[in-house]
Amino acid sequence: MKAGRERLMLGSIMICFLATGLAAQDFCWDDSVKSLVFRPVIQKIQPRLKLSNELSYSISVSGYSCFNGTGNKTAGQMAFLHSLKYRFGISSRRFHLTNDLVHTLGLVYYFDSISKFQTDENTLTTRMSCEVVKRIQFSVSSILTTRIFDSWDVSQSPGGGPLIKTINSSFLTPLVCNFSGGFGINLMPAGMLDIGISSAKLTYIRDRGIFDKTGLDLFYGVEKGHTSSLEYGMSLHLIIDWLIMKKVQWNCDLLLFKGEKAAADMTFKNLFAYRINRFLKTSLQTRLFYNEDASPGIRMENLLSFGFDFHL
Asked: Taking a C-beta distance cutoff of 8 angstroms, is the pair 168, 149 a contact?
C-alpha cells in the first residue's frame, strides 16, 4: 500500500515537471487533434523602416467659377473632373521620406454652350526630413508641376464675332520646380510647416514657339529667346490634412516663394470635404494663385463638387 502511494506521488511529480517543461517551450494542447503541438517562441524583430502607400481616385461634377483669370470666359462654368492621387512613403523613428503624385483632368462646359478641356494639373511633391528634437526637423523638399495637354484661353471677338482661342501652356511648357532646404515644424496632429532658408525656383520651357503664339516677351519668368530661368530666394510651405469626426476632411496647402528680385509667388488651396458614405463625397475648394509674370493680379477659383471617390 505504501509502495503504491509512493508510485502515485512520483507519477504526479513527473506530470508537474512535464507540464512545466511544456509551458517553458510554449507547448499547447490542440483540441482539434487531441495532441501536443510544439510552437517555439521567436522574438519579433521590428523593422527599422516602414513602407506605406495609398491610392485614391475620384470622378466629380463641379460648379466652377474663376475671378481675374485669363480671357473673358471665367464665370458660369460646369466642370467634369477626374483626379488620381498616389502617395508612397518610407519612415523610421526619426527619418521620413514621402512622395505625392497628383493628376487632375476634366471637361469644362460654359453656360453659353462652349466647352473645352479643363487644364490638367500634374504635381509631384517629394519631402525628406530628419527629426533633430521633438517636432523640429531638418527638411529638404521639391515640388514639380507641369501639364501634359495643351491649355487654351477662350475669348469673344469684339462685336460678338467668332471665339478666339489662344494657347497659354502645353507639355513641359512650363515645367516649374521649387527646391528648398531648411527646417520643418510638426504641427500635430495634422499639419506641417516648412521654412526654406535656401530655396530655388527653376522654370523650363520646352516649346520655344510659345512666345510667338502668346505674343509675350516674358513667359513665367523666362525671357524670349531662352528656355529656362533660375531664381534663388526663400520659401514657406504650410500643409494641413486633418480628418474631423471621421466624416469631414480639411486640407490646406499654402506655398510662398520670394525670389531675389521678383515679387513673391503664391499658391493657396483650401478644401473642405464631407464623406457621405464609402464611395460618395462632396467638397468645397477655394484656390488662389499669384505670379506677376503670368497674371497682373490674384486669380481666384471656387469649386463645389459632388462625386464618386474611393481609396485603395
From this structure: no
